[in-house]
């Protein structure tokens, strides 16, 4: 079925961008969220592309596959016929492709690689690396075959919040510096796409002070640079505790005895202290949740997966992303 004929679905209509950039502080689970979003957007027989640009092979590890090459590969299917494809973008391979595409330096480009010239170029001009990475993402997002989009959506597992604004803005800086030529044209095209309604930047966080503060800072910086913020995705959340409910030592004692467990004073006191700590922790989480709500950006909360993230866990997160609006 061609892309233009694929049915619309709830995920596709409520996450309307075509390019979804997923960022977050390290340790918040942004790669898992990006993978789950790709699965969610593939629902209803759609086709999505999941892209990583940091060279960590996090997608392959998550799905238990061999390391991904610099080529688009079928990764997973959804229960209703959707497809998720994956791509790891390598800056060196992207530069070779760029040299061949615009300067017809196929064999010569490979010779430069053997001489180490490509590593040298991307090292002395680190901005060039990000231009190449975002350029490849833009090509996949806008590619068509017989006037039909190859992918209904592209999900980018992007650099963390501390680097995301610079990563996305490097094409605008390069376009200003380059006067003429393919580099200027490509940089301008990527910059326009990243600032258009076709792109949304989603920020993944935990209900912890450092990730929330980085989320607040990143959203402010992204907005100041003209990038559209999609959603704040709060990962690893737990069900709320009953308001004002404090477990007493008498209740703990009765519960332990009913379960046939030791109910000595030391055990009961330890459980009481743990319950108190949990209540304090939940109060902090509620305060941080309120801080995020003040950003005036849609919030989606994903459940904590006690057994870790496997394919079943990714499907659970995908379902939560679809139902989160």
Automatic annotation (TrEMBL):
SUPFAM superfamilies according to UniProt: P-loop containing nucleoside triphosphate hydrolases (SSF52540)
Organism domain of life: Bacteria
Entry GO MF terms: ATP binding; ATP hydrolysis activity
Pfam families tied to this protein: ArsA_ATPase
Start and end residues of each ArsA/GET3 Anion-transporting ATPase-like domain: 20-175
Record's protein name: ATPase
């Amino acid at each position: 079925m061609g892309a233009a004929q694929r049915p619309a679905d709830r995920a596709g209509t409520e996450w309307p961008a075509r390019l979804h950039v997923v960022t977050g502080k390290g340790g918040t689970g942004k790669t898992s969220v990006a993978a789950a979003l790709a699965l969610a957007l593939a629902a209803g027989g759609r086709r999505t592309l999941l892209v990583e640009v940091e060279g960590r092979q996090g997608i392959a590890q998550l799905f238990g596959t061999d390391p991904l090459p610099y080529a688009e590969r079928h990764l997973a299917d959804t229960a209703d016929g959707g497809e998720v494809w994956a791509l790891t973008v390598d800056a060196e391979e992207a530069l070779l492709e760029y040299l061949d595409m615009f300067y017809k330096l196929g064999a010569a480009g490979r010779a430069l690689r053997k001489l180490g010239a490509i590593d040298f170029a991307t090292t002395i001009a680190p901005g060039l690396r990000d231009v190449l990475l975002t350029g490849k993402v833009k090509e996949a997002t806008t590619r068509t075959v017989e006037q039909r989009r190859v992918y209904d959506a592209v999900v980018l597992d992007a650099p963390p919040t501390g680097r995301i604004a610079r990563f996305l803005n490097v094409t605008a800086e390069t376009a200003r510096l380059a006067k003429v030529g393919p580099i200027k044209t490509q940089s301008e095209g990527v910059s326009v796409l990243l600032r258009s309604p076709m792109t949304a930047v989603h920020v993944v966080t935990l209900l912890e002070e450092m990730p929330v503060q980085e989320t607040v800072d990143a959203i402010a910086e992204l907005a100041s640079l003209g990038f559209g913020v999609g959603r704040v995705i709060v990962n690893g959340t737990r069900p709320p505790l009953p308001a004002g409910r404090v477990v007493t030592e008498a209740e703990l004692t009765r519960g332990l005895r009913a379960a046939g467990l030791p109910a000595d004073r030391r055990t009961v006191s330890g459980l009481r202290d743990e319950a108190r700590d949990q209540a304090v922790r939940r109060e902090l989480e509620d305060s941080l949740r309120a801080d995020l709500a003040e950003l005036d950006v849609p919030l989606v909360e994903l459940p904590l997966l006690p057994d870790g993230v496997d394919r079943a866990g990714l499907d659970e997160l995908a379902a939560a992303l679809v139902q989160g609006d």
